[in-house]
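User: Can you help me understand a structure? I only have the sequence.
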Amino acid sequence: MKRLVFCLVLCVVVALLIADEAKKYDLVSNLKKGDSFAKVVKVEMKGAMEGGEVQEMNMAIQMSGEMSVEDVDSKVTATVADKITKAQIKGRMSGVEFDYDSDKKQEGGEKENPDPSEMIRGMMAERCGQYLNKAFKIKVARRWTTEVVEGAEGLEDLLPFGYLELMLQLPDYPVAIGDTWEVKIKNEHGREIELSLTLKEVLGTAAVIEGKIKKFDVPNPDMKVTLESSSYSARFNIEKGYPESVSLAVTIKAKGQGEEGGEVNVTESITHKCELKPKEVKQDEPKKEDTPKTEPEK
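Assistant: Let's start by predicting it. Here is the structure, written out as tokens:
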């Protein structure tokens, strides 16, 4: 009898596990008109170039801003305004340290003979300043593929993987835990990335996606680029239909000819993370009714 009960319980557990594994999740956009998100893109780059002498570079970049949904059409394609409100860049390059913060006044920019760190900071202020507090229009499709509509010339060159592109493309069909799909992303400058992504698990309302970069092509005829290693992870909110975070990291090696004709070898590691957090819509507070003044008793 005990053995029979045990077998029945075991069958039920196995049936539940099979049912859970077979469950399909439709990972699609669920953006609504009026949705607003705080957006942060963080990039860290470490590199070294050998050719004549070794030059090292370390840089940390953070772009902060906001995304707001202006409209959603019948195909669930959202028109989104994406704005950078703050830029911070800090690092060291060829022995020169630099620190740029768009919220701070850039001292030394008007000097006749600024030192190297001031020159770099001034170039960063000029480069980033043209994109601050401007709304760039993008289209976000049902599978979170993005298309830049207007006003972003040169913006995607600020960061190795761009600012507007979130490096996320969802599968064209519902997927179960363990399912894998392929992604190809190509920008206007010819940079092409191929990803292999897998739905690793579902935690509450968050789909955890992991993967790797299969192909990383950079259109540079003077350098041969080789992908050494890569990693990818993302969290997608299934209920609200937006990516909470997208992270990827690559290490590449490049070989080419230097300006003086000698061979140059470059090693670079890049980590890129984008986070979106919904912003609460503030409701107008009800006006307090004026209380009638009472006459003092005589």
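Now, to help you interpret it: The first strand starts at residue 36 and ends at 51. The mean pLDDT is 83. Let me know which part you'd like to focus on.
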